[in-house]
Amino acid sequence: MKRIFVVQGGGRPKGNTSKLVEQFVRGAEEAGHQVEIVSLLKEEVNGCLGCNACHMRYVL
């Protein structure tokens, strides 16, 4: 069994991307895999602010 993480980024809740993800998940679960889905429609996604925090984490 594998654990599969799906990031769904389609723009419509019942659009083509959603239908494709549903079919993929169904097949993966039938094959015995564990699937977790995160929809970006439910999350606020912003661009980079240029704060360099991502670089500072690794410089110690």
Dominant shape = flat
Overall mean confidence score, pLDDT: 89
Give the N-to-C terminal Cα separation. Answer: 38 Å
**Sheet with most strands:** 2 strands, parallel
Helix content: 25-40%
Count every helix, treating DSSP H or I runs of 4 or more residues as helices: 2
Contiguous runs where pLDDT drops below 50 for at least 5 residues: none
Q: Order of strands in the sheet with the most strands?
A: 1-2
Strand content: 15-25%
Order of SSEs: EHEH
- Rounded to the nearest angstrom, the radius of gyration is 16 Å
Kindly state the number of beta strands: 2
Structural class: alpha+beta
Describe this structure as you would to a colleague:
The protein has helices at 16-30, 53-56; strands at 3-8, 34-39. It has 60 residues and is α+β, with helices and mostly antiparallel strands. It has a two-stranded parallel ribbon. Strand 1, helix 1 (16-30) and strand 2 form a beta-alpha-beta unit. The longest helix is centred in the middle third of the chain and has 15 residues, at 16-30. The model has no long low-confidence stretch (mean pLDDT 89).
Spell out the blueprint of helices and strands.
Layout: E1 3-8, H1 16-30, E2 34-39, H2 53-56
Parallel strand pairs: 1-2
